[in-house]
C-alpha cells in the first residue's frame, strides 16, 4: 500500500480546488474547448433542486456544449466557489495506515451571477447556493492535475428574482444549466 503523506494530502486538496476553479473560470470566459478537461469521461449533472426534472448522465464534451448554448446567449456570467469542505482522509503518523484516495466527495458554496441586458425585470439574475461534487483521480494521469469531476449536484436559492434573463433563451434546457 502506498503511503499517504501530509504533502500528498495538501497536493490533493489544492488540485481539487483548482479543478473546481477551472470549471467556473472556463465557463465564465467561454473557453469551451477547455471545460471538458475538468470532467471525467462520464458525468452526472443534477439541477433538480433548482429546476425539477431528473439528473442528467452525459459526457464532459456534451455538458460543455450544453453550457455553451446557454452561456453564449447571456451577456456575461460570473461563478464563484468558496468554502470547499472535503472528505479527504487525514494522514497519520503511521503513513501506511491511510490509503491515497481515488475519489473525494465535497461541498462548496457557490454564487452565480447571470446578465442579460434585455431581460424584463432587470438584467441581473443572481443565484446563491452550494454544489455537492464527487471528483475522481485519473489513474493514467502521469503529470499534472489528476482530479476530474464525476458528479455535480446544485442546491440554489435565487437571490434576485425580478429578472427573466434565463427564460428569454427559448432553446434553454434547464437540465444542462
In short:
Pfam families: SnoaL_4. Residues 9-152 form the SnoaL-like domain. With 177 residues, this protein is α+β, with helices and mostly antiparallel strands.
Report on the architecture of this protein.
The protein has a six-stranded mixed β-sheet. With 177 residues, it is an alpha+beta fold. The longest helix is centred in the first third of the chain and has 23 residues, at 6-28. It has helices at 6-28, 32-35, 48-51, 60-71; strands spanning 39-46, 56-59, 76-86, 103-115, 124-137, 147-158. The protein is built from four helices and six strands, in the order H-H-E-H-E-H-E-E-E-E. A hairpin with an 8-residue loop joins strand 4 and strand 5. It is 24% helix and 35% strand. The chain has a single domain, classed as Nuclear Transport Factor 2, Chain: A (Roll), CATH 3.10.450. It is elongated, with a radius of gyration of 18 Å.
Class derived from helix and strand content: alpha+beta
Biggest beta sheet attributes: 6 strands, mixed
Shape: elongated
Spatially, the strands of the biggest sheet line up as 2-1-6-5-4-3
Q: Would you count the extended β strands for me? A: 6
Cα Rg: 18 Å
| SS field, number of helical segments | 4
Pfam families: SnoaL_4
InterPro entries: NTF2-like_dom_sf (IPR032710), SnoaL-like (IPR037401)
Domain SnoaL-like: 9-152
Protein name: SnoaL-like domain-containing protein
